[in-house]
C-alpha cells in the first residue's frame, strides 16, 4: 500500500453504526469516506427491481453486465448511483439489507466491486467500512477496527433511524429478527465471511453514545498512525 496515504478499515455486523461512525471519523481526519455496504445494497436493489430473488445466483450474474455502479461525492457526502440514478435513500430499507447480504455471498459480485474499492484506497486516504475490509479488501490497511454492539442495541438503533426517516413502519421485533438472521448469514457465508481480522482492534459500543463511539474510533486511529 502507498505509504503516502492512510487506510482505515472498519468492519462489523449490520446495524453496528459503522457508516455513521466512519463518516464522522473521515470528516474529522480529512479522509475520504467509502461506504462499501452501499455498493452491495445497490446491486441488491438492481436485482430486486428485476423481480429476482437475491439467492438466484444465475439471475444475479446476469444482472452484473447490465448495470453500472458508481460513487459520487457532493458537499463531502457519498452518493451511490445505479445507472446514473442516485439511489442513496432507496437502498436503506430492511428488504434491500437482506438482498445486500444475499448478493454479497456471490463471488462474482465481490470481484465486480473489488477493484473499485481498492483503487479508491490507492488514490487517497480513506475510512472504509464493511464486512471484510480488513480481511479481504484492504488487508494491508494501517488501521483496522472491528466495531460491534449487541443485537438488541443494534436493532434499537436501526428502529430509531427508520422511525426518524419515516421510511416504513417496521417493528423493533421484526428488525431484531432480521438482524440476527443477517448476522448468521454474514458469518457463515463461504466467501469473505464476517470476522474480526487478527490485527483489528475490537470496539463494542453497546454502552456508548454515538459521540463516544466516534471519539473512541478516532483515538484508536490516531494511536495506530503514531505507531503506539
Detailed description of the structure:
- There is one protein chain.
- This protein is α/β, with parallel strands linked by helices.
- Helix content is 50%, strand content 17%.
- It has a 5-stranded parallel beta sheet with strand order 2-6-1-7-8, sandwiched between helices. The chain has a 3-stranded antiparallel beta sheet with strand order 3-4-5.
- Strand 3 and strand 4 form a beta hairpin.
- Helix 2 packs across helix 4, helix 2 runs antiparallel to helix 5 and helix 7 crosses helix 8.
Identify the notable features of this structure and list them briefly.
228 residues, alpha/beta, five-stranded parallel β-sheet, three-stranded antiparallel β-sheet, 8 strands, 50% helix, 17% strand, globular
Number of helices: 9
Overall shape: it is globular
What distance separates the N and C termini?
A: 20 Å
SSE arrangement, N to C? EHEHHEEEHHEHEHHEH
Uncertain stretches of 5 or more adjacent residues: none
Total number of strands: 8
- In terms of structural class, how would the helical and strand content be classed? alpha/beta
Strand content: 15-25%
The strand order across the widest sheet is 2-6-1-7-8
Rg calc: 17 Å
Largest sheet: 5 strands, parallel
Give the % helix.
40-55%
Would you tell me the overall average pLDDT?
Answer: 90
Amino acid at each position: 500500500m502507498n505509504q503516502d496515504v492512510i487506510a482505515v478499515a472498519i468492519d462489523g455486523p449490520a446495524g453496528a453504526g459503522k457508516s455513521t461512525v466512519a463518516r464522522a471519523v473521515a470528516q474529522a481526519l480529512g479522509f475520504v469516506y467509502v461506504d462499501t455496504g452501499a455498493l452491495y445494497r445497490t446491486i441488491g436493489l438492481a436485482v430486486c427491481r428485476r423481480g429476482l430473488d437475491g439467492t438466484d445466483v444465475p439471475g444475479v450474474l446476469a444482472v452484473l453486465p447490465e448495470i453500472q455502479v458508481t460513487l459520487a461525492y457532493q458537499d463531502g457526502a457519498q452518493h451511490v448511483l445505479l445507472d446514473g440514478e442516485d439511489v442513496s435513500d432507496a437502498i436503506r430499507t430492511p428488504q434491500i439489507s437482506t438482498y445486500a447480504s444475499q448478493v454479497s455471498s456471490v463471488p462474482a459480485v465481490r470481484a465486480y466491486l473489488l477493484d473499485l474499492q481498492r483503487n479508491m484506497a490507492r488514490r487517497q486516504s480513506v475510512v472504509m467500512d464493511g464486512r471484510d475490509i480488513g480481511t479481504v479488501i484492504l488487508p494491508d490497511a494501517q488501521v483496522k477496527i472491528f466495531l460491534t454492539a449487541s443485537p438488541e442495541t443494534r436493532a434499537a438503533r436501526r428502529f430509531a433511524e427508520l422511525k426518524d426517516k419515516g421510511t416504513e413502519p417496521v417493528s423493533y421485533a421484526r428488525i431484531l429478527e432480521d438482524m440476527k438472521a443477517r448476522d448468521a448469514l454474514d458469518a457463515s457465508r463461504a466467501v469473505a465471511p464476517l470476522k474480526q481480522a487478527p490485527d483489528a482492534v475490537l470496539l463494542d459500543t453497546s454502552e456508548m453514545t454515538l459521540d463516544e463511539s466516534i471519539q473512541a474510533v478516532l483515538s484508536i486511529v490516531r494511536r495506530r498512525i503514531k505507531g503506539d
